[in-house]
Amino acid sequence: MAPDIYRPGIDKVGAKTGVRVAILEAVPAPPSEEDNAWRLLVTDANGEPVNDAKIVVIRTMKHGDSTHGDPRPMQVSPLSTPGEYQIEEMWLNMPGLWKITIELRAEDGQTAVDSVDFSFCAVDR
Question: What is d(CA 121, CA 62) in angstroms, rounded to the nearest whole number?
Fold first, then answer.
């Protein structure tokens, strides 16, 4: 998996529904070890904002034959602008290549509807 190059507005499209997730802002930028915050814009296949989305963020890092994540909880909150969400307390507990999956779930909060993967090399602060 090659890392993405962070820039404000970097986006990915989900394979199942065509949902588009853009990272409007990352603090720090580019993402780094320890605490990160992202502001997202989520739109449907027609470019319309997706409001009231159930978003789950999954962080994983591969080491040789093993994969691990960071179990610390994150805050994902809708913002006042349609389709925008804020992710807070997204810890990347060590430098290296992280896959960050933004998963949109159905009303039940359990069933994945679509997802996108971003891959960033978190730098040591």
Answer: 12
Q: What is the pLDDT of residues 49-90, one digit of tens each?
A: 999 999 999 999 987 777 777 777 889 999 999 999 999 999
Regarding the domain delimited by 10-122, which CATH topology (the fold level of the hierarchy) does it fall under? Immunoglobulin-like (2.60.40)
* Cβ neighbour number for residue 9 with a 10 Å cutoff: 9
CA 6 → CA 23, 68, 83, 109, distances in Å? Answer: 9, 22, 21, 29
What pTM does this model have? 0.92
Whole-number Å distance between alpha carbons of 67 and 63: 6
Q: How many CB atoms lie within 10 A of CB 65?
A: 5
